[in-house]
């Protein structure tokens, strides 16, 4: 890798921006929002894979972003770019990152200082591992950042990471100040991430700001999150789908005048309905008025790339966050438990897309989830031995079923393993006068009847969640009922419908007469008059059918 030839960077004024994953199914849709309210914000900061072609293939809004990038400038905020961890990014990935940023005209790329992936496999939910705020953490993070910057023709802007467990002894802002001094790289101040550190460390929100180099901040992030209490500690969970805390709006108003080189303020409004995002953006627009400012010239970083020492022990923190080692062995046991609980919740949410039955039967409790995250199958994902979280869970579940045979669990696992195969072929669309299965629906058949188990899983989830709201705890003892239901499947063949749900699948139980009546549609569209009126009404009422 060779360093960019330029001795300086020119950063344009970007103004107020809205973040996006560039998915048409996500809210808010940035371009619809801007068309409905011209001037509401000035740019889009998008997260996408590092490689341009991969982003083009995966992001459904990429064509619109590409077409409108001269009208609506963009900032590229790549996903799973390691700015800490046991291994440096390969030169090929940095070359792809640079090509991507240059192609879309992103004047810089920014990312949280954290360990996002191992061997190209992102951690579930993109929950990175935060480095320890220590001198060793500064050294290893600097090695990563300067290694990446050496291959970029635009500046790398380093962002303070989210914090649950406080480790290393340094304040988060002191850590970032030292990292800036070591690398010469511009700073991105994420206010929610700062809040997370202050709460975890038991400090006031503004602690550390007076000695922090705010004059080196070129971008600010503001987003939603949840403040939660555990024992005597308070934590901020960085969940962008939540409303923005009032404390962060107030902090932004105070910090803005103290950042003379600021180029952008980004609202990370992932998951906010357009009417909610509109209200937040209008409030932010009053703080960051639409205006034009001359470009900012910064000296390009020329720091040599140091060796990666590994003294900050990334795998040890990975193990602590996934229950491999007891939380009591970490320097912040309570923070480690909070971090682990959040990771386990995300793992459960990811698994439930593909394994809603099997996951509750085998890994419904924290102990069950930890049994999976401590397993060779899970760790193998990040050692280059696994294909996906779903495949790792399937391998682990098969091993569990073989070690402790259970016909009910084996049946649930077999059912959920077969569901994706129902969608391998696209059925023909109905012609005029015909009716067919809905595009996201298929019909399935299984040798054992699991109708009661499918019902029990949904009913029990609803019941236990409702009780948790009332008593403040999830009564996992109620899950014993699932084992009873799983052990008494009915005789087959069992016919049911399957609906694609996001990236996963949902089993829809049907009355026998409806399932039997729809069987013919598995072969393709049929004339409308071939279906009895009651069946047509039933199928359309359940969202199973489409007409030309």
The CATH topology of the largest domain comes to: TIM Barrel
User: Could you give me the name of the CATH homologous superfamily of the largest domain?
Assistant: Divalent-metal-dependent TIM barrel enzymes
In which order are the strands of the major sheet placed? Answer: 4-3-2-13-10-9-8-5
Biggest sheet layout: 8 strands, parallel
Q: What share of the residues does DSSP label as strand, in percent?
A: 15-25%
State the total count of DSSP E strands: 20
- Which consecutive residue ranges, at least 5 long each, have pLDDT under 50? none
Overall geometry comes to globular
- CATH architectural category of the largest domain: Alpha-Beta Barrel
Computed structural class: alpha/beta
Helices, by number, come to: 20
Helix content: 25-40%
What's the overall average pLDDT, rounded?
95
Tally of domains: 3
Give the C-level CATH assignment of the largest domain: Alpha Beta
Q: For the CA atoms, what is the radius of gyration?
A: 26 Å
